[in-house]
TrEMBL record:
Similarity comment: family membership: Belongs to the class-I pyridoxal-phosphate-dependent aminotransferase family.
Keyword Transferase: yes
Organism (species): Peptoniphilus olsenii
Name of the protein described by the UniProt record: Aminotransferase
Cofactor(s) this protein requires: pyridoxal 5'-phosphate
Short name of one Pfam family: Aminotran_1_2
Protein's UniProt keywords contain Transcription regulation: no
SUPFAM superfamilies, per the entry: PLP-dependent transferases (SSF53383)
Amino acid sequence: MTSHGANVFDIAKSKKIDVKEISDFSSNINPLGASKKTLEYLKDNLNLLFTYPDPKYIDLKKSIADYTNSNPQNIILGLGATEILKESIKYYQSANSMILSPCYSEYEEELEKINSRIFYFDLNYTDKFKINVDEIINAINLKKINLLVFANPNNPTGTILKKDEIKKILQNTNVKLIVDETYVEFCDQNIYSSGELTKKYENLLIVRGTSKFFSLPGIRLGYGLTSDIKLIENFKNKEVLWQINSVADICGQKMFKDDKYLNNVYSFIETRREYLLKELNKITNLEPIESKGNFILVKIHNEITSTKLRQILAQELMIIRDCKNFRGLDSSYFRFCILSDKENEKLLKSLRKIFN
């Protein structure tokens, strides 16, 4: 089973402390919490828990369609983005697949399950892990890739392709393309989100969730955008009746419409990300990689390893992501997500002390 960040509950139990005392910089969840308007709406509609949800989820799909500039009939619902990723990879049954390196490990795990031959498109430190779209196109055509799966922004590097660059891939290859947009809401969606491209390109699937940006991992609501009729039918045939529970349905009808919340989260992450990048660049032997996610990958340039750093910070109840297990990275890399101003400053203070 793939782990998503640290198990802070185990850590809290072992240290006999309240879980709230731990700053989890490994989970990549929006620190501002869920939309208050959405939670109030849920509270005011608790009576709906005594009835079955609409099996067609008409209102939920309309809310998602308006938010993503897509068509309601092109929306797939799932138990988190993970379910949609797993089922779509299984459906495509690609002989030759490509993923980025480094990337989220679950893509590789799911491709191995269908015995797909996996090719790795390496992102390099010398290029600051930037993605070269022309090189990807050449690699797809040369190696006869059937399926390309990647996150945009990429996890853990935070590097990204623009919507126009993804369009260029679709125009110059015949590849099936799964774009995991788990973190795209933390940057300018008009430039980077490919949701509207699904109206024209049937070989494109956009996958999103509500855990990271909307800070609601517990409701397990994920969705996909595609105009591939056969793929949509495949999901319909596998669905159980009332697959999405009432809490996810109710929250989903409201959260995507809370413009004030959406703007506040975007603005908070954007300003703190720029501040943290600037401050990290001042610390001796640390090199942050430019990111468009709500997390930052950092390279260490001295003898301190990512594992040692994680141990030191854990003693101060701060949990970072040791990136040595990512393919293409080593023990000189760690990743952390943006938390509250107080927690961010605490992390910076410790890093300055350790490295300066």
